[in-house]
Design brief:
Arc Repressor Mutant, subunit A, 15 helices, mainly alpha, 5 strands, three-stranded antiparallel β-sheet, Fic-like fold, single chain, globular, 2 domains, about 375 residues, two-stranded antiparallel sheet
């Protein structure tokens, strides 16, 4: 991070780090909201477009009888893409197999990291019934995200007590860092100020507030590791906590992953030169595009569910097979043990459900070589949720 890259319009202050090489400076962002943030016609237009797309998505989710089931595949897709931004490469199929108990060994940390992301997101959404979005909740989801995987030795669930930095590689020395967040002594103050802003009242449009919050969290970088993923998890939690969306169907990682360099560059420009406008416009475009994408995905999944239900009715399948079918939209790879649990714990009933689903062409057995707890997949659902 070069001091010459920062201008008089920077949105914080540079300070020397208390430990480490002499002359290295860290950036401490000013508290939100920024002073002198004036809306432009373009920002107003993009905000209206994003608002409209979100309203349409929320309206669709309210009328779909199965929106809660569809959110399962959305969450897993987000987990895969958000982790990919950080260099963790896992496919949705690998995640499905892992969750069904059919893949990954102790050395396969990538899929476990993605699974932790799903678990952290689920935990955060459930906790919103009892907690606002706050430092306590942020630390809880970080603990789940980082436990038992790479970085799990770096104080999961605790704000850092050491200086961290961002570079093109994990081994980049701090003097060559792309960005140096606030020293640990200043970081907690920054996080307390951010918590106050998140839970305060303001006159800014809700989505503009979300853009500011996301930048601020990334600028503070409060953990030793896992900050990027926590920041994107925080986006979803904020949108739901503020009732900007009613169901967790909007995720931005797909948009960000395609534009990683622009994403990082725009946030750095906010710090270095106060370039809020381009960053907020980027964020609003992401919301609008991903809201439209989520609408189409939700419609397609709902239509497929109706077609498959009609197929089961056509062969006079028992009603309990519909419960299994619905679960396949939450995760399209399933074990025979899980099927038995879904139909009330009766093994023979589970076997009959599997036979009906197989005869309807909805399920096929995977070649695992197992004699017990066999795995099955729905190719039609799998293809749609992974596209």
């Amino acid at each position: 991070m070069k001091e010459k890259d920062f201008t008089e319009s920077q949105t914080g202050r540079l300070v020397e780090i208390p430990e480490g090489p002499k002359g290295v400076k860290a950036f401490i962002p000013d508290p939100l909201p920024p002073k002198g943030l004036l809306p432009t016609w373009e920002l107003s237009r993009l905000n209206s477009e994003a608002d409209r797309a979100l309203s349409e998505l929320s309206g669709l989710a309210r009328v779909l009888p199965n929106a809660h089931l569809l959110s399962g595949s959305f969450r897993r897709r987000e987990a895969v893409l958000s982790s990919k931004i950080e260099g963790t490469v896992t496919t949705m199929n690998e995640l499905f197999l892992f969750e069904a108990g059919g893949a990954a060994n102790d050395a396969d940390t990538d899929v476990r990291e993605v699974h932790n992301y799903v678990h952290a997101l689920n935990h955060g959404l459930e906790r919103l019934d009892k907690l606002p979005v706050c430092n306590r909740l942020i630390k809880e989801i970080h603990r789940i995200l980082m436990t038992g995987v790479r970085g799990g030795d770096k104080t999961p669930g605790e704000f850092r007590k050491v200086q961290n930095h961002i570079g093109p590689r994990k081994t980049t020395p701090i003097q060559d860092a792309t960005y140096v967040p606030p020293p640990a002594t200043e970081m907690l103050t920054c996080m307390n100020q951010l918590e106050e802003f998140i839970n305060g009242r303001g006159e800014l449009p809700p989505l503009v507030r979300e853009a500011l919050i996301h930048y601020q969290f990334e600028a503070i970088h409060p953990f030793v590791d896992g900050n990027g993923r926590v920041g994107r998890l925080l986006l979803t939690l904020n949108l739901c906590s503020e009732h900007i969306i009613d169901h967790p169907l909007l995720y931005l990682s797909e948009y960000i992953e395609k534009r990683k360099e622009e994403y990082y560059s725009l946030m750095f420009d906010v710090s270095a030169s106060g370039a809020w406008q381009p960053w907020i416009e980027f964020f609003l475009r992401a919301v609008a595009e991903q809201a439209r994408d989520a609408q189409q995905r939700a419609k397609d999944l709902h239509d497929l569910m109706q077609r498959l239900k009609d197929r089961l009715l056509g062969i006079k399948a028992p009603s309990y097979t519909l419960r299994v079918l619905e679960e396949l939209f939450f995760i399209p790879v399933i074990s025979s043990t899980h099927v038995t649990q879904l139909v009330g714990g009766q093994v023979k009933t589970g076997q009959r459900a599997l036979e009906k689903l197989r005869s309807a062409g909805i399920l096929r057995e995977l070649d695992t070589g197992r004699q017990r707890n066999k795995l099955y997949a729905s190719d039609e659902i799998h293809k749609l949720v992974t596209s």
